[in-house]
Amino acid sequence: MSAVIIATILLACLLLSGIPIFAAVGAAGMIGLWFAGQPVETAAQIFVDNVGSITLIAIPLFVFMAELMTVGGLMMRLI
After folding, report:
1. Of the chain's two ends, which shows fewer C-beta atoms within 10 Å, N or C?
2. HSE (CB half, 13 Å, CA atoms) of 16?
3. Which residue from 57, 6, 54 is spatially nearest to 30, judged by alpha carbons?
4. Distance in angstroms (rounded) separating the CA atoms of residues 50 and 67
5. How far is Cα 26 from Cα 21, in angstroms, rounded to an integer?
6. pLDDT digits (tens, 9 = 90+) for 39-67
7. Distances (CA, A) of 28 to 6, 70, 71
């Protein structure tokens, strides 16, 4: 059985059992890497390489701006 199928089945089982999404995705990814024969350091390396990505920086800033608009009362004026 391929590592992708095992990781997908594991992800579905973990989500259906009520585990939070971030933990289920992380666990399924690590187990998938293990079954694929990849070293776990690969996941850490990919994570560190993508932290500087402009797309990943934009997501928390978007949430922060929405919070500022809500606190400042601009959201009520837009609605």
Report:
1. C
2. 6
3. 6
4. 25
5. 8
6. 888 878 877 787 777 777 788 889 999 99
7. 8, 36, 38
